Amino acid sequence: MKKLLLVIDMQKAFINENTNFLIDKIRDLLNNDYFDKIAFTKFINYSDSYFVKKMNYKRCMDKNDCEIVIDTLDNKVLEKGKYSVFNDEFRDYIMENKISEIYLAGVDTDACVLSTAFDLFENGYDVYVLKDYCASSGGISYHEAAISILKRNIGKKQVI
Prior knowledge:
Blueprint: E1 2-8, H1 22-30, E2 37-43, H2 50-55, H3 63-66, E3 76-80, H4 88-96, E4 99-107, H5 109-122, E5 126-135, H6 140-154
Parallel strand pairs: 1-2, 1-4, 2-3, 4-5
């Protein structure tokens, strides 16, 4: 039974006064021997994405915005162009490494963390959201709302 810590979108574009505190907290978490594997996600936006077309969101289109603010060391970095990291590459990574539990940390609780948690839950994975290691760049109210939604939809015991 292997445990994966999945650090979601700790990128320059998402670090602000609401999320900055996570950098040190997650760095400390990376040194925890509880996890067998650690992986990071990186959101990359494209000019033809719905983020641009529907929301006029143009961040994460250049190298500076996309830079992960925590040293990923030799850990896997999974690139994605959507909220959730759940795709064939991630599914293969889970299978190859015999991952049985997935712990989520990072930003944004109300978007990428939420979407990834839902996808993992709906596809039968044992997923946990580390609520004190997540935040929303939009502020605490978005984070708290997402935590409430997660507790209701994936289970109170899955949000720790």
